[in-house]
Task: inverse folding
């Protein structure tokens, strides 16, 4: 099974904000057109054993934009209040099954996921890792990612996609100039 949504940005909150794909470019596209898509994202990234069935996608989109504002330094009082409100929601609770497996449960998985995402964003922005959050150098991308490379010089959110496209463009430009 192929994952529906992109991962690998380095933190859960960074993968979450990538659901507005190609943010700020002419190719911008919404990966949460409806509650079913939000539920699919929770199923892919969340800790819950059963599929999530959120009633609405509105709160997810509102949190996504608040997290993006926080990470890009555009925090105003309404954004701060929204983040704090989501972070205060109940988080999933661990429980041990009779067979010794750890399961995560929540009466409302969508709200619990919002709490996890808000808490992850607040943790990131107040940690030393925040200095390593980068914007992808791909001209059509716009994604944020956590640079975990040793020298801290990573340029692309994905070497396989954005990095490869940049290298192809450079190669073509050199070949054309020759």
Result:
């Amino acid at each position: 099974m192929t994952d529906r949504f992109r991962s690998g940005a380095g933190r859960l909150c960074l993968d979450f904000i990538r659901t507005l794909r190609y943010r700020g470019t002419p190719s911008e596209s919404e990966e949460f057109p409806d509650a079913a898509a939000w539920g699919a994202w929770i199923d892919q990234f969340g800790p819950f054993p059963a599929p999530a069935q959120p009633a609405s996608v509105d709160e997810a989109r509102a949190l996504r934009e608040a997290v993006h504002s926080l990470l890009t330094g555009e925090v105003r009082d309404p954004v701060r209040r929204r983040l704090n409100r989501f972070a205060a929601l109940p988080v999933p609770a661990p429980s041990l099954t009779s067979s010794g497996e750890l399961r995560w449960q929540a009466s409302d998985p969508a709200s619990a996921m919002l709490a996890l995402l808000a808490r992850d964003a607040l943790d990131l922005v107040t940690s030393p890792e925040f200095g390593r959050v980068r914007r992808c150098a791909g001209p059509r991308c716009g994604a944020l990612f956590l640079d975990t490379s040793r020298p801290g010089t990573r340029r692309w959110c994905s070497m396989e996609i954005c990095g490869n496209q940049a290298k192809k463009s450079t190669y073509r430009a050199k070949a054309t100039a020759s």
